[in-house]
Structure formats: C-alpha cells, structure tokens
Amino acid sequence: MLMTMSIVARINTCAKFVLKSPNKSLDCLYSAFASLRLNVTGSSGHQVTQKCGYARPPRNPYTKPVSFDYAGELMTQEPLSPTEILWKYREIKELQNAPESVRRLFTVEYASGREKLKHRHMMAQERMNKIVEPDDSLEPSIVRASVIVRNMIPHIIKFRHDKRNKRLLVEQIQRRRKLLKFLKKQDYERFIWLLKDLKVKFINIPAFNKRETRKGRLKRLAQEESLALKRKKIEALKQQLAEEHKIFQEQKKQIMNTIEKDITNFNLDKELIARSLKQWNEDKRKET
User: What are the annotated GO cellular component locations (predicted)?
Assistant: First the structure.
C-alpha cells in the first residue's frame, strides 16, 4: 500500500513538471522518470530506495550466415593479373610499341568492374571455342553462368543487404543447374567432362525439401546402422566363402589325383568311365 501511494505521488510530480514546461519534448518526461526514486518497505521494516528508470533493451538481431554451398562451387574465382591487357584491346598493334605508361591504361589495373567481367567472359568463351564445336550452345552458356556466379558470390557475402544482386545470383545458379541437367540428359560424357573442367559439383535439389524431424532422424540413423551391419555380415560371409572355396579346391585336387592313380593302376578305360557318368547324370535329370 505504501509502495503504491509513493508511486502515484511521484507520477503526479512528473506530470506537474511536464505541464509547467509545455515547450519541452518528451525527453523531459523520460528524464523525470529516470530520476524517479521509489521508497519501498522491505520485509524487515526498513526503507529501501529504488531508482525507477526507462531503458530500451539492446537490439541484437539474429544474422543468418550467408552461404551458397548449394551452388556446388569447388573453387573460388582466380584473380586477374594487373599487368594483363584487356581482351578488347589485344588486336591493337600500336600498343606493342607504346610506352609503359600508355600500356598500363589498357590493362586490368585501370579497368572497371564491368570491363573485368567482360574480359573474363571473352577469355572463357575463347577457351571454350577451341574445345567444343561452334554450333554447341550449352557449354558456352554454362561457362558464362559460372563466371557470373563466381564473380558475384564474394560480393554478396561481403554486402549481404544487396538484395538486387543476390536475386540475380540465385537466378544464375538456378539457370546453370537447369542447363547442366539438360546436358546430362543429352550427353552424359560431356556433362562429366564439363564438371571436371569447371570444378563444379552438380547438386540436384529434391522436389520436396522437407525438414527432418526427430523421429525421422532416429529412423534414418537406425536404417543406416542396419545397412552397415548387413554390409559387415555380407563381407564376413564372402571372406568365409573364399576360404572354403580354397579348401574345396585343394581337396578336389587331391581326390582327382587319387582317381588318376587308380585308373592307371587298374588299367581302366577313362573315356568309358566319363561316358557312363554322363549317361548316369542324364538319367537322374530325367527322373527328377
């Protein structure tokens, strides 16, 4: 009761203070509440002074780490040499005899971001034209998309709020996956060769990307454990069968040697014995 009356009294004091100063902003009210002290009677009967103030809690928003592992990139973009002349200026013969200060103006060092990207595109296209036929359109398109993806991934990781370029990057990743899937159906050998050449891993996203539950995870682990146990037993049986087969071959060799010795000792006709055994096997087969 005493605490409630003390709070009401302090609030009335703050309201009168604000009404006397109408030109001041709400910061005055916040400062008045910050300087407000409450008298609280403890359980032992002594007075405890508490300071009542408003403090906004610090905001620590959760930032999800940016990851593009689903793109399947096994390597990063190799940096360009700063002394390399841009592709569009290579046919200019006057640059060969030009001074060093003039040649530097046409190198990668003084090129913009778009010019560097264009240079990468033309270099990749020139290299691909030497390997594949000019009529093929899948491989150059996949290489072009790979250059764009590798060029944009470091930018998006550094500037995570660049939503426009992030959307373009996701579109290029999906487009490259679509072209790779079409190439896989058309020619599997070219598909494998291009993956090895570009150092890209083909990750096929399932149709239903369902979140794994605890029950499902336990079921999957039990299935994996059972499969591992089956493989272990099969390997043990194969090893046992190989040992038994080795023993059987040794016993067979010994028996055949004794049969050969008996045939020679008793002067038996080997061909007659073979024909009689064959006839006996045929008669047995007919009876069954």
Answer: mitochondrial small ribosomal subunit
